[in-house]
Amino acid sequence: HPRQHSLETQLSKFNLTEIEAMLESYTKVLFVRDPFQRLIATFMQGMGSSSSFSSFVQDVLDSGQHNASMAWKPLISLCQPCFIQYDYVVMFGFLRQELGLLLRRAGLSVDNLLPEFTDTQVRWTYSWLSEQMFRELSLQQKKQLSHFYRWDLAAFPFSSSFLSN
Hints:
This protein is mostly helical. Helices cover about 50% and strands about 5% of the residues.
């Protein structure tokens, strides 16, 4: 695309014609992660000021979707998958397999380009941690979180998410 070297990085800075031309000329890859695991990761990184996971979740719910931090905002509102036709959706937990496939399809050597990923090894840890954190929440918080992330849960195959039950 002619404006590929532009300093602008947000699509919203371009007009509709430019946006359509850019989206047609690029391979679009979307990286997604279970919303509940995103919340846990955000909490563990200390991005919230709450002392407990339950109070952190309450702060998230109280902030609402429009005032939500990018760290826990629903993916649907961040990446617009209903409007942008992504070529690939890569799930956290399967980065090595999915990126290997993506690189091979692009005709690149997987051996030299693919870094070591830990997402597959930490899947069982997140499973255990998710279970512990989920128990900390009230039934009302669980219902509200499921509602908060309802469109993410409908759009992406997070079948093992605690929020989809």
